From TrEMBL:
Residues 2-124 form the SnoaL-like domain. It comes from the Bacteria. SUPFAM superfamilies: NTF2-like. Residues 120-145 are annotated as: Disordered. This is Nuclear transport factor 2 family protein. Residues 128-137 have a biased composition (Acidic residues). It comes from Streptomyces meridianus. InterPro entries: NTF2-like_dom_sf, SnoaL-like. Signal peptide: none annotated.
Amino acid sequence: MANTALYEAMEQGDFEALSALWLPGDVSCVHPGWPLLRGNGEVLRSYALIMANTDYIQFFLTDVEVSVEGDTALVTCTENILSGGPAEEEGELGPLVGQLVVATNVFRRTGDGWRIWSHHGSPVLTETSEDEDEDGNGDGGRSGI
């Protein structure tokens, strides 16, 4: 499926394959912590920048749900990301970092198959035991539940 192809292209650093997956024209993308990007040029530049500054990335997708209505498909999932930046010394892998992102990917069916219309990724903020109070909801008892 096109959703899997998106993440495989990112893992392989295959910018051409990733570019071919996007609809031409008016698309949108929000990477975690980034502003809204609109248009094929802005969106693809963002992926080129990410690929140029990421030596290693691997996605483990969980909670994948797909809904199709006519020529539009909505895919939601959790991206369990393991990535590494540039190494300090040649021939070594940079430090690895894990991150959870909840993603929504919207696809449109075209004559060439499914193409990405919009991607939105939001970071998942994990709670620590210090954040939880005695009722276990992490809100300091403010919810009243």
